[in-house]
Amino acid sequence: RRLYFDTHALVCLLEANGFTTQQSEVIVSALVKIMNTNMDMIYKDMVTKVQQEIALQQVMSHIGGVKKDMIILEKSEFSALRSENEKIKLELQQIKKQVMDEITKVRADNKLNLNLEKSRVKELHAQQDRALTQTDRKIDTEVADLKTMLESHKLDNIKYLAGSVFTCLTVALGFYRLWI
């Protein structure tokens, strides 16, 4: 057996750290026994080259059998699977076409509904614009009437004021003449 460390160097190291020669040798021999026991257990689980080659030959023969079975299956069941697959492809194409037709119909309906809603909104805006225009006209008419009325009252007030001033002047001139 090979040892993967220097036993003499280990004995010397142990002696340098305070062990006696006999103690150091006993410790090293115990370590060697433990390692040998462990190696025996490991070697029991290992496979020899001959066993490995036998196992490889068995695996290769199983692979050859599986290949033969696969060839047979390919000729029989795989052809059935291929035909079934073709049928499914055709059905999928038909379904795809139907779905595309339905999508086209839905898009057309949505466009129609959208156009109807746009026309309704335009009509509503037109009605609102007309109502707003009428309201603006009424407001403008009322403002013009109020301006006319204000001008009329203003003119009347100027007339009354002028009349009052002339009356007061006349009375004042009358008193002035009486006193002079």
From TrEMBL:
Top-rank taxon, per record: Eukaryota
Gene Ontology terms describing biological process: calcium import into the mitochondrion; positive regulation of mitochondrial calcium ion concentration
Keywords: Coiled coil, Membrane, Mitochondrion, Transmembrane, Transmembrane helix
InterPro entries to which the protein is assigned, alphabetical: CCDC90-like (IPR024461)
Subcellular compartments: Mitochondrion membrane
Coiled-coil annotated residue ranges, if any: none
Signal peptide feature range: none
Main localization, broad class: mitochondrion
Gene Ontology CC annotations of this record: mitochondrial inner membrane
Transmembrane segments: 160-179
Family: Belongs to the CCDC90 family.
PANTHER family tied to this protein: MITOCHONDRIAL CALCIUM UNIPORTER REGULATOR 1, PROTEIN FMP32, MITOCHONDRIAL
Designated name of the protein: MCUR1 regulator
Organism the protein comes from: Chaetorhynchus papuensis (pygmy drongo)
